[in-house]
Amino acid sequence: MKDVIESMPTERPVEQEGFANRKLIRPSLNRNDHNSNHTQAAMERRERPAGGGKKLPPPETTNAENFYYQKQMQGKTPMVIVLRDGEEIHGVIEWYDKHCLKVNRNSQANLIIYKPAIKYMYKEGENSR
């Protein structure tokens, strides 16, 4: 007769078991993505001054104008808007967009003012300039 060897399950070390449960994560690197990231990083390096060089210009949009309008709208602050031709408009800013302001006035008709027509504006209680 043949010698029969009972098959017994062998115990795997815990280390191998933990390793087997790990998933392999591979980032998808398309040639276009890889090259654009590389060139973008190179451009950023060129733009930054080394040491005490020239400062970079500020970002194009700082949202300061939006913040100012929002604050005046929420407080319903009476404003004086001086147009390029010298006319003064007194009222409260109701809303604004990229090109216009809507000004509510008590004793007169409400207006929509084109922003390029505005010379400057200030709060009604303050001195101009």
Terminal-residue CA separation: 113 Å
| Proportion in helices | 25-40%
Strand order of the largest sheet: 4-3-2-1-5
Q: Radius of gyration, Cα only, in angstroms?
A: 34 Å
The run of helices and strands is: HHHEEEEE
CATH topology value of the domain at 75-123: SH3 type barrels
Corresponding CATH architecture of the domain at 75-123: Roll
**Total of DSSP H or I helical runs spanning 4+ residues:** 3
Number of strands: 5
Return residue spans where pLDDT drops below 50 for at least 5 consecutive residues: none
Mean pLDDT: 78
The level 1 CATH classification of the domain at 75-123 is Mainly Beta
| Class based on secondary structure composition and strand pairing | alpha+beta
Query: Shape, please?
Result: elongated
Fraction of residues in β-strands: 15-25%
The main pleated sheet reads as:
5 strands, antiparallel
Structure description:
The protein is an alpha+beta fold and 129 residues long. The protein has helices at residues 14-20, 31-47, 64-75; strands at 78-83, 88-96, 100-104, 111-114, 118-123. Strand 3 and strand 4 form a beta hairpin. The longest helix is centred in the first third of the chain and has 17 residues, at 31-47.
Q: Which helices and strands, and how do they pair?
A:
Blueprint: H1 14-20, H2 31-47, H3 64-75, E1 78-83, E2 88-96, E3 100-104, E4 111-114, E5 118-123
Features:
elongated; 129 residues; 23% strand; 28% helix; five-stranded antiparallel β-sheet; SH3 type barrels; alpha+beta
